[in-house]
Amino acid sequence: MPGATIAVDVETRTVTTSDGVRLPVEVAGEGPTVLLLHGFPDDRRMWDPVADRLVASGHRVVRYDQRGLGDADAPVGRHHYRFDRIVEDAVEVLGVVGDGAPVTVVGHDWGALISWGLSIARPDLVARHVAVSVGHPRSYRASGLEQKWRGLYTIAFQAVGLVERILLARDGLALRRWARSHPHLDRAVAHLSRPGRLTAGINWYRANLALVFLRRWRDCAVPTLGVHGTGDVYLTERQITGSARFVDAEWAYVRVVGARHWVPVERPDEIAGLIARWAAGAAPVGRTADVAVGAAG
Fold this sequence. Notes:
By secondary structure, the protein is an alpha/beta fold.
């Protein structure tokens, strides 16, 4: 039943990375492993309804709070949030809780950039890839003026100290306006209002903005499904559909009609179904092509 809560048994562990950062990790279910990666300003709880549905459909689901977010450690200093270090977190988590077989990795927002990075750097660990909302980095940077306009906030985030004061003032009023379409906005603001946590989250942007535009990103050799909500105000459709040029493997794209940026939270039934079909090697909705699911409402 859409929107229903599905009870599952969850194993919770702490994985300590090679640089000493503790990451809370949850593992649930049995079957082929799906690794779920969240972005900013979220934590592993964002995936609750999708994870429950994947477990019910016969998958083993691994998810964790990424460094600086949720209940993970938040080391001080932007160098702790460099892209390659965060990709290595995923490698190390799989080294501890993986079952030895390549996984389906699913990322949303910054988690999608990490899933692209993992799929590009370690295709031996990834069988199938689902990128929700964010395209291949080369597609993102080549996606035109509209995307650059929508992403101006990433430039504003470089103002150390000032942006934290502005975003958290008056009970996070500016933060609430920026993330106004977040389905669990109060929870997100509460988490980022803890001492040092907003800085840790924004350090993802501060440590990696230049890298997104300057690195010579390789093509992705892992079969990839791109997913985008038509109501996303932060990211254009073009930046994800253009990823087809940079995937040297099977590519498919799904447009989720009426969904906004937080597609997995808004439309868990559809997203879990897409992930399950893609993980099984099937086309997303009966054929490998640009398709739309859902209805505007």
